[in-house]
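Entry for iron/sulfur cluster complex. Fields follow.
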Amino acid sequence: MEGPGPWEPFDIETALERVRAAIRGYAAAAMFELAERGHASLFEQLVGCLLSIRTRDEVSLPVALRLLAQASTPEAMRRLGRERIESLIRPVTFPEPKARTLHALAERTVEEFGGDLPCDAEVLRSFHGVGPKCAHLALGIACGQESISVDIHVHRVTNRWGYVQARTPERTLAALEAKLPRAHWVELNRLLVPFGKHICTGTRPKCATCPVRSMCPRVGV
Ligand code: SF4
């Protein structure tokens, strides 16, 4: 390997192509995995995302699958009740407030929207606990809406690449919306979450063997 680099200009298409190849074999981010296992409705995606907050995918994914096996619709989740939800989701962090949030999500979805959530970011964000990351990712996966979901991995990696220069995930989102070709908006999160977990990690990123190394300025590393 040549060093210290970069020794070729950064190109987002090439970078994403290399990331796509590099992450084959790693587990998909939890919400994409949920969709692949048949839980692709907006409600199910939001449930998966709310469970994953401050909890590793390895923990939240099996919990989401267990909960959705019992109640995959708002009506069924409402009937399940807060206490039962809490006992089913116990391995995730903050099970009690998360159970309350999930039950309230189900209840309001039934009462206000007849059990069918609209593909509308503002509506989704009006639910307690649903932030821009969950809303955008769920809309992208469940509704096919082009939206970018910026979590800590997307924020860290795109800034290390120098593709954006932003101090917060919110600013990274705005910068990406202005710059990233729309064809990659939904896919970006699916690619960069496993890439950020296994290669461009928070501490001690694996630059020596990274497939993007030749064009990465490694900002802040
Ligand atoms: S692992 Fe290193 S070389 Fe690869 S994208 Fe991250 S900072 Fe750049």
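NOTE: The radius of gyration is 18 Å.
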